[in-house]
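Look over this record as teaching material.
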Amino acid sequence: MKKLFLLSCWTLFQLLAASAQTPAAGSRPAANTGCNCGTEQKIINGTPNPATPVTPATAAPIPHILQVQARKLENRDSVFKTVRADDLILLQLSNPKAFMDSRPVDNSKLILYADGVTLKGITSDLFSNIRKDEFKATDTLTWVTFQLKQDTTTKPAWDNLYKLANSWHSNTLRVHLSLGWEGMLPVSVNAKDLPRTKVTIVYFSSRMFVVMSLLFVGLVVLILFLAIRSDILKEEPGGAYSLSQTQLAYWTTLVIGGFLYSLLLTNIASTLNSSILLLLGISMGTSGAATYIDYFQKKKLGPAYVPKQHRGFFNDILGDGESMNMQRFQIFAWNIVLGGYFIVFTINNKTMPVIPDVLLTLAGVSSLTYVAVKPSESQ
């Protein structure tokens, strides 16, 4: 009986404890103390108040190029889509304040871009006299003006433009124009505005190109005529052709042609650089040294001197009178390779190349070897 009584008491105690933990009907559960700012209501002075929504940050405006126009310097009333040297180029820029805020430093230059290529030297002074923190304009649009100068100060810009040319004889470039701060990417253009930012750049006269080409062809024909009908390229009157004289004529013709071509297309005479003059000097020095050696041999041998006989053009310039030799072939082959490089570079870049020192040294060594061996050649 005692055990039964204790068991009944323990069961009753368990039932009372369970009923104490169960909330009564209609009672309210305890408030969640965790923070759930997106779903919970704030209670201010006992009154529920909806949470204040967070306003997202407004995105900064992005500048774009909307359209591009061209005008003549002397006539600003008419606008075009064809640009020539010294014309004005006008680019319509949206959100100029945001563009000004992107300026890296206050003395950064504003540069023109063509198809994403920097036209270094073609700049605008629109923002040059104002600091970034002083720019307070509220206009949403502005026009930025550049002048397409073609001189020594803008030669790097034109060198980049010529690389976009489709062919060696084409006188036009069809490009998209933009602008940007020096050292930074150009301002972007929306897809719908691309047709309005495209212009045609005409950089030389087709008629003048034909005239200058005919003039150069006439010069080549004249040199060939004199080479066949006269002794201009020969070691002796009526004798064999001279390798050194042929080399001098070869480089004289190439340099004149390159100068006329680059001058016509760029209107810049400074494309004739010091390395080209040094190359001509090597050819002239080789010719002079070879002529002096022939003269010395003639004086030394007197009546016993026998000039080299004519056996055909290539036999004359590659041979010593009896057989062909390697030093003559080496200087001949090297001049052909260097001349090919000169032609291709001038056509692709519309300017004559700056010959690297190592190539000039190699040309000089080839000429020196030819001159050094010439006295031992058979006469």
